[in-house]
Amino acid sequence: MCSSQKDYIILATRTPPKEEQNENLRHQQKAKLDNLDEEWATEHANQVSRMLPGGLLVLGVFIITTLEMGNDFQNALRRLVFAMEKSMNKRRLWNFTEEEISERVTLHICSSTKKIFCRTYDIHDPKSSAKPADWKYQNGLSTSWLSLECIVHINIHIPLSTTSVSYTLEKNTKNGLARWAKQIENGVYLINGQVKDEDGDLLEGQKKSRGNVQATSHSFDVKVLTQLLLNSDHRSTATVQICSGSVNLKGAVKCRAYIHSNKPKVKDAVQAMKRDILNTVADRCEMLFEDLLLNEIPEKKDSEKEFHILPHRVFVPIPGSTVMLCDYKFGDESAEEMRDHFIEMLDHMIQIEDLEIAEEINTACMSYSVNTEASLDNTDDEQPKQPIKATVILKIQQNIGVIAAVAVAVLAAGISFHYFSD
């Protein structure tokens, strides 16, 4: 958990062993430097990073060894910290601010003496050397968090120009999301229906008891307003772009962020919420493409429309804490599979009844495209009369047109992709 003043660590999770390592766990007590699998640990960091709502980050690595082995591992841990941060940063649609702490932690726990050696590295400096850091335990830390929640309605149109058609659908989508991210960054955020001064105290006006704000279970409702029109002093011009198709994302996603209750600033709360919005949309897209690649699902050629269901967001509480982490559930995954994945990634026991599936509900609407050459309308399925409780959908539709002249209102649930290919 990050703030502009200090970092709070609320969870440490062991990297699960590879399948071939399960049979040799006893030998791992005498692990050698060569056995530190940087690629495997980095992938675990990426998986855990997806499971963190806004305001939470993977802050570093820890290792438990004998005292004499600790020094041997320091350089390896340093390389691992930088490799993990580089890998996770590639997936982000946002950048760190200059005010934020840019240090990441390595923690060595001596298995014999129980002593703790904490060091930090500045991830913005590739030549950064280790700095000693204080490691302190704090009472009540697990319940000292404020939560922010919002439902964001997304309508993203990504034209695929003839010059980008050779790129993968995943790369084109990510490029389009980067442009949409600027709208989220520049949006107006209402907290409990009010626009607050970004430098103000988030808890201003809240009731206090014995000098402390009663905020251990306090939740704020956030609404996001994005600009539709430029200011009058800005000029804009229309651009005609020759396209082979387009990708459209439309729907609603549930977002959640956390911030420490010690003098929380409005700007820190808004920043945490922005990052959760960007993360959850990008992560769902990335997971879909991974699933398609893993299962080698071919593109349908007999039908103009192709649907792929994107995962729902599932929340689960950290034992003994008010903070909830998340994962994503595809339609064919059972609750038992979700629980097992949480246990594997987070190294904590999770009960099935603790799983909270984020219900993302959208009113059904119609989608159509205009082919300017053939003067044909491609309409979506008929509009259902009842609202649909649904998942995120990827829709792929064939289109022969060459100029993007598209009006889209997709039958939605969660998020939907609408892809027109050659």
Count of distinct strands: 20
Report strand order across the widest sheet.
6-9-5-10-20-19-11
Q: How far is it from the N-terminal to the C-terminal residue, by CA?
A: 45 Å
Mean pLDDT: 75
Q: What kind of sheet is the major sheet?
A: 7 strands, mixed
Approximately how much helix is present in the residues? 10-25%
Radius of gyration using CA atoms only:
24 Å
Q: Uncertain regions: pLDDT < 50 for 5+ in a row?
A: 209-216, 300-305, 362-422
Number of H- or I-type helical stretches:
5
Please state the overall shape, judged from the principal axes of the Cα atoms: globular
Portion in beta strands: 25-35%
Please state the structural category: alpha+beta
Q: List the helices and strands in order.
A: HEHEEEEHEEEEEHEEEHEEEEEEE
Pfam families: ODR4-like (PF14778)
Organism: Neovison vison (American mink)
Protein name: Protein odr-4 homolog
Subcellular location: Membrane
